[in-house]
Structures are given as C-alpha cells and as structure tokens.
Amino acid sequence: MRYFFIALVSIAFASCSPKEQVDLILHNGTFHSLNANNDIYEAVAIRDGKIVAVGPENEILNGYSASNTYDMEKKHIYPGFIDAHAHLLGYSLMKNDLDLVGTNSWNEIIEKCRNFPIKRASGWLVGRGWDQNDWGTFSKDNVRLDGIPTNEALNNLFPQTPVVLVRIDGHAAIANNEAMKRAGVIVPDGVLLDNDMTVVLNAIPKHSKKEKAELLVEGQQDCIAAGLTTIDEAGIDTEDLIIIDSLQKSGSFHLRVYAMLNASDKDFQYWMERGPDTSSALLKIRSVKFMADGALGSRGACLKQAYSDVLTTKGALLNDAGYFRFRFAAAYSRGFQVCTHAIGDSANAEVLKWYGELLEGSNDKRWRIEHAQVVDSSDFEMFQKYSVIPSVQPTHAISDAPWALSRLGAARLRYAYNYKRLLGYSNMLSLGTDFPVEKMDPLRTFYTAVFRKEYKEGSEVFAGEESLTPLQALYGMTVWAAVSNFEEAEKGSIEVGKFADFTVLNLDVMKATAQEMLHAKVDQTILNGVVFRGGKRLS
Q1: How many helices (H) and strands (E) does the chain have?
Q2: SS (H, E, C) 422-437
C-alpha cells in the first residue's frame, strides 16, 4: 500500500510538472527535416527564433507551452528555401521601371516605351527584360546580325530623353544617343555589351536611400511570399549593404541575406582592409563576386571556339588574367570566399585554372562558380580537384533550350547545363533563380531541376539525362545552399539549435508528379519563428 501511494504521488507530481515555455509551437504537420537521416517530424517548438525541440505531436504539446500555437493541417514543411544566386536589389529597383519581360517584338517594346509614364525623378526611361530570341521573325532593317535592333527608333522617339533598355540577362542593353551622350560612351548602333553597358547604367542618377529602402521592403515581401527565407545577393555595393543592415535592425526587413560584394575598386579595397563580417544573424558578408564573362543570350559568354550561329565572335573575358589573379589572391589572403560568374567553356576553364593556382588541391574554402553553364568535357574534373562548388540555376537551362543548339552546336551542347554531371564531381550543387533574369520562384527551380522542362502543361523535356532527383533538388535549395554559404550550422535543415526558417507547401514535392507540381503552392513562410502568408506577417 505504501508503495502504491508513492507511485500515485509520483504520477500526480509528474502530471503537474510545468511545461517549458516557448514562443511558438507548430504541430500536426509533416516536417521534412533533411537531416542526415531525412527524419520526418510532426511538431516543433520554437524560442527566440530557433528550434528548441522536434518530435511527435503529443511529445511537443505535452512538454511545451506557447502563446502562439499553429495547427499545420498536415501540410508539408521544409527547411526555409535559399535562393543561392539572386539580385534582390536589382529586382526591387525595377519595380518603378518599364517591365519588358515576355515582349514578343521590337515594335511592341517601342509602343511600351511610347506609353510608359517615366517614374524616375532623373527623367531617365529605364526598362529591362527583352529577349530577341523570343521575337520570332522580324524585319532585317536596322537589325544587327545577332538579331538585336539598333537604337534608331529610340533616337527618333526620344531625341532628348535618355533611354536604356536592358536585356533580360543583364549583359546587354540598347541605349539611345542621349543616354550614351550623358554617359560619355560612343557606340554607333547603341547596342551595348557588358562593360559599355555598365558605364551607361552607372551614369543614371541613383535612387535616394529612402527610395531604395522602400523598394527593398517591397521586394523582400515578394521573396517571403515565394517561400524564400535567405537570398544570396549576387553582387552588391557597400552603401546598399548599409541600407539593408539598417532595415534589418529596424525590424522592417526580415529576409536573411548572404552578400556577395561587388569587386569595384573602392569596395574591394575597403573590404580587403576590413575583412569578412559575419556578426549578424541576418546579414553575412564574407564573399566577393567577380564577372568573368557575359551571357550566352547576348553572345557575351566566352567560348573556346566561335558561336555556331555567328562565326565572327566567341565572346570575351571582361578583364585580363592579371586582374583576376591579383584579386583572387587578395581575397584568399583575407579569408573571403570567391564567387565568379562564368558561363562559357573558356571562361569556366580559365577561372577554374586561376582558382587552382591558389587552392592547389582539396580544401574547405568553398569557392564557387556562378552559373557554370558550358564546361568543356576535360574541365569538369577541376571542380573536384579544387573543391569548387557549382552554383547553378535550373530555369536557365529551360529558358535557353529553344536556341541553345543553334548557339552552341550539338557537340558543345552535350556539356552545357550538365547539373547531374557537375554534381558527380562536386558532390553538391547550390541552386538559385538569378531573379529578375528568371522568375522569383523556388518551385520553378525545383521543377526544372527534376523534370527538365518548362513550368507548364505539355512542355518538352530538355536533356533529361541531366535531371536531379527530388532529394538532390531539395538539398540544392536548402542543405547544400547553406553549406555553400558556410551556414550549415544554423540553417538548411530542421534540427534543434538551427533557425526556425521553414517553407510550408500544400504537397509533398518528394513524391509529386510533374503534373502535380504545377499545382504546388507556398501556403506559409516562417522566418525566425515569425509566420508569414503572402509576404504579410501573421504572428
């Protein structure tokens, strides 16, 4: 009897034990942890923006108490999606400019320019998003051999208003004479590639800090609505980093940013003296972005042999070998990660060679090649030899598919957009969108990586042998993306101690067919333990 009484007291005491207090409990969900065992949980407890417990629903509800508790209604919850290569600032600043994405002809663009109310205080008309490859047949009058129109119509329509229209890839533009005059650039037909384009864009009066801040807040809401919790900002100046940092500290900017610094002389010198800064949980500054070449769409990507459809050019590197070697060495000595845009097979080969001169062999520097679109068959092994991480954008393969064969020829195309092959050498890929070049949509990233076709019904498969598995695609948007940012200890999987960053979907992407994926939707995004729907805060 005595022992029975003791047992009753013990049970009573246990039942009255206080629950551990947390900020948020999410339960009745399917949490895909993506940990080493790919465990699936029913519930998580969150405090101070971090995961404090995971497990069965009854265990979490019985052990923890929270002021906010959400029933996840069996929805599928993944680690917060990371866009490993994007341009949030550029996307945000474009909100007040002329959107040319999806235009079908030069005449349509001219009409859009004619009717567009200029919103910039400077009076410049700026547009972005045209792609001559989408225009089909067109008049050869006032059109170059590469299919890009000259600026004659812009000069006639806007003799005194500066106009610059940037191609969708951000590596070519058409500018009228007034714009070039103000920039001090003379290109007879107004078609600008890479370096010349940059000079003209730099001549456009900058947005005020207030304007940038307001537009960035709008831009980050779009990112969160799309299910993104971290953006790798692929090229940003110090002054813009200061704006983002200020917004984050004020509580108006929730998105996490992994910053790749622009390698301009002023910024590069400043950060080489200062060194990396990873003190903030929201903003990491430890990498430098370099541009080796242009893009395939504008034939600025540097190839080993001439383009198959325009035999007079093979593109070019944007700087000489001495420039890259010196700056790579400086970044290496100061502990910065190097991330280099390289698209053509020649650009990839040269950058990998220069990397190798410093990295020498296997290492944990996690230097990256951004895009790695065309790689010569003999150069893949350098990714493995020097532990270089390919950072790729699966939607590029599908967007380029209609013209890639004519641009590259059959022999080179076999080694283009080879994501599965790259993974075999590197053991990881980081996946991104490159928005606004492509749509801000991680679900498209997943779809095109796995199914290798356009995100719509009835589309055809492009080089399906290079498809990733669903798990590999998810890893590329979470675990591997975090590793490529040196952030695997704090994000990329659902584990105790990591940030409470989740993307909530209406279906299981691990099992979904291509048809089912077309109906995939982001239901909620949870960032640092704060619940958002449609980019708007709920908790």
Answers
A1: 19, 24
A2: HHHHHCCCEECCCCCC
Q: How large is the greatest C-alpha to C-alpha distance in the chain, in angstroms?
A: 104
Q: Pick from 152, 182, 203: which residue ends a domain?
A: 203
User: Is the CA virtual torsion 406, 393, 428, 420 positive or negative?
Assistant: negative
Report the C-alpha gap between 507 and 523 in whole angstroms. Answer: 10
Of residues 211, 269, 284, 280, the one with CA closest to residue 243: 211
* Per-residue tokens: 383: 């990714």
3-class DSSP string for 212-253: HHHHHHHHHHHHHHCCEEEEEEEEECHHHHHHHHHHHHHCCC
Written as tens digits, the pLDDT of the chain (539 aa) is: 444 444 444 444 445 568 999 999 999 999 999 999 999 999 999 999 999 999 999 999 999 999 999 999 999 999 999 999 999 999 999 888 999 988 999 999 999 999 999 988 899 999 999 998 888 654 444 566 567 899 999 999 999 999 999 998 888 999 999 999 999 998 999 999 888 999 999 999 989 999 999 999 999 999 999 999 999 999 999 999 999 999 999 999 999 999 999 999 999 999 999 999 999 999 999 999 999 999 999 999 999 999 999 999 999 999 999 999 999 999 999 999 999 999 999 999 999 999 999 999 999 999 999 999 999 999 999 999 999 999 999 999 999 999 999 999 999 999 999 999 999 999 999 999 999 999 999 999 999 999 999 999 999 999 999 999 999 999 999 999 999 999 999 999 999 999 999 999 999 999 999 999 999 999 999 999 999 999 999 87
Whether 54 is in a domain gets the answer: no
* Domain CATH code at residue 456: 3.20.20.140
SS3 321: helix
State which residues form the domain around 456: 82-86+208-533
- The edge-to-edge listing of strands for the beta sheet with 172-175 is 98-99, 125-130, 163-167, 172-175, 191-193
Residues 357 and 225 in one domain: yes
- Under 8 Å between Cβ of 366 and 431: no
Q: Which amino acid is at 103?
A: T
- What gap in Å lies between CA 518 and CA 505, rounded to an integer? 13
| Residues 276 and 285: beta-carbon distance below 8 Å | yes
pTM of the full predicted structure?
0.90
Residues 199 and 302 in one domain: no
Residue 13 lies in a domain: no
29 dihedral zone (left: phi>0; alpha: psi -120 to 50; beta): beta
Q: Of 203, 233, 267, which closes a domain?
A: 203
Are 198 and 265 part of one and the same domain? Answer: no
Output the six-digit token pair for 454: 């356009």
What's the rounded Cα separation, in Å, for the pair 368 and 485? 10
In eight-state DSSP terms, residue 297 is: T
List the CATH number of the domain containing 194: 3.10.310.70
Regarding beta strands 30-32 and 76-79, do their DSSP bridges make them parallel or antiparallel, or are they unpaired? parallel
292 token code pair: 């080796």
Distances (CA, A) of 502 to 41, 125, 229, 250, 394: 13, 39, 8, 22, 22
Q: In this structure, are 147 and 282 located in the same domain? A: no
